[in-house]
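This protein record is not my work; I was only asked to verify it. Take the sequence as given and treat only the tokens as open to question. I have pasted the whole thing underneath without changing anything:
***
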Amino acid sequence: MTLLLLVKRPALSVPTPAKRRVLTAGALAKFVKRRPHKKPDAIISELAERYPLNPDQKKIAVNQVKAKRAMHRQVMADIWKELPVKRVIQDVDAFLDTLAKKLEEVSTSDSTDEFQYCSVDHRRQCLSLA
């Protein structure tokens, strides 16, 4: 009787490249939302520790943070301007209708990647709101 001994050879491991972390618009928005009192430069420098950002990407990200905050301020100002003083049901209903229209305009007019690819002049125009 012969015994057959099988030896399993170790597989040659080919090093796989590490996944490159990409900063998405949603991740940036969450990061900014959690740091409401920090300046845009401080937020992006903290973010650069987690994501590989070159200087141009950092500059774009800072501008995106400023633009997002400017849009937020504008929407909030519009809400406060339209907020009814009298709390009558008709006034509240009219306010909610106006608010729904404004939020729909904001959500359809702005894409999350708009500031990444827009021209410098358009970016300046958007940031002049700040």
